[in-house]
Model the fold of this input.
Amino acid sequence: MPVFDRDASEDSGGRDALPKLPVPNLKDTLDMYLRCMKHLLTEEQFNKTQNIVTQFGAPGGVGELLQSKLTERSENVANWVYDYWLNDMYLNNRLALPVNSSPAMVFPQQNFMAPIDSLRFAAHLISGVLEYKTHLDDRDLPVDYARGQLAGTRLCMEQYYRLFTSYRLPGPERDTLVAQESSVMPEPEHIIVACKNQFFVLDVMINFRQLNQRDLLTQLEKIVKMADNEEEQLPPIGLLTSDGRTEWAESRSVLMRESTNRDSLDMIERCLCLVCLDDASGPELSDTKRAMLMLHGGGLTKNGGNRWYDKPMQFIVGADGCCGVVCEHSAFEGIVLVQCTEYLLKCMIGSPSKLVRAASVSELPAPRRLRWKCTPEIHKLITSAADKLQRMVKNLDINVHKFHDYGKGFIKKQKMSPDAYIQLALQLGFYRCHGRPVSTYESASLRRFQQGRVDNIRSATPEAFAFVKAMTERKNSTSDTEMMELLKGAITAQTSYTRLALTGMAIDNHLLGLREIAHEMKMGKLEMFKDEAYLISNQFILSTSQVPTTVEMFCCYGPVVPNGYGACYNPQSDHIIFSVSSFHESQQTCSAEFVKCLAQGLRDVRDLCNKCNADCAATEERKGQTQKAHTQTETKWEEKSLQRPSDLTKNKQTVPQVLVKTTDQSSVEAETQTLPHGEAQPLSKISKS
Done:
């Protein structure tokens, strides 16, 4: 059992212990908005936007009215942006969940020598899930504290308690995030196991006793045998959950007409999680291949139907050792997923499998296959969903790249933030690929506040643009020192904006809140939010996220716009793992080309740092030599001053002019040194003593 390395707390990060999310100043947000957008727009676009923003923020204008209403809202709810953000980011989105919304964590490749090995792995994993769930139920999960910027700040823990108790219910226009409460309905005591596109109920509590690993293995073996029975096999209903959200809502309504289907849906929606026992997917299992299989299952011909995407946690255990977890993102952020999965993997690594014990005392009842009544209409809907998933499989262009030249260790030696540095490298890679800056999204956690989720760090800063443009179009007139100053300026700007976002002072959530308040007040769509600049600002062609781990695994997800990139990175001490995604259908993007430009950019920035470090070291060495030469001269002069007048007469010497001030008053350089012979020599010819 892994040992928690975080401090425990009585209230486990209770909501009341944290401050409320502040409402930023209106003028600050509007000024920052213009600053963020100016270099992303044409001069004509910017002039128009500037006039619109000025009018919006004018004294006594609509902006001030909306700001006052937003401030009023903040006083009456725990988190003024939570519902607005959840709907805008996830629940209103009509795109299919796989690739477009649901990220995946890819576990280390497992070496299963026999079919039973994958089932042992699954049993061990489920045992860890039950152990972790016990910590959640007992509310004794230690509180998280912030790392990096503003380290040590207590964080909100609410997202953890949605890991195994929530469900995303599809709706025709907006989905619903359903959170199960024990006071309303009984706690789930079962897991759904998917095998060969069939779904089985695995009760984890039988006769008031939690199943041990041997029990779990026994039940999993039964499930595999049941799934192999071709006479009992049912259509791949899970494919419907991979469809667009409106389409899936309509298909679910059709399913709900039959009581058998209603019962099966209820069992899935109330389960702890899914465990998907996948068939082998082919001989080549590169990191890139495994990432693709985690995101979409490989389509109907592989394991695409062996999923239920509405459930927050789907653990994938492939017969070929391709394992990981796919998460429905509306319930929690990536760091919560990481903490949970790291606990599970450490649990499995740190404690041996407990399968050598005696068999169960009593015979376990067989797991139950979920039944479905499928009309011709449902068969047609499944076929349609399968076709769309297959197009998505063909469309996804993903490239997982392990950059081994250096990692965050080198970056820290430069006294720079690894995250800010990597974000700048992403900007450089994109600019070299496409010759322009674009709106960029990097998630910043707001868990310092009650019900905190995330806001956006706008990494495409004017300072970043100045640096990447200079690096790409470098002219002989731009010195390394000037390039280094641009680099440092861009790092500082990124770090400063990150701090704004972490403290609730970024612009995206604030503008969203103002827009939604206007909607609630039935103001119609204001010019501010119809403006082309606002649309461009929310087209995140570069969607990025840092997902660091302490266990060997990595995160991946798809782009958020058709002509964009998803770029997830995991910085380690001596390497960085990048997972870059795009769509083949876009003529503007290519994941392999972007990765190539990104890697070269990282090498170029490193070379710039090393060159400037070497120049600084040489300068410091010259300073040291100057000081030493100065000291030696003064010492010899003092010695000669103590000689008798007759000795001074005998040894006629002239006092050399040793020190010469350069134009930089902070540095002093020795040009000559008086030797014992009284002959002046250039400093470069003097050996070190």
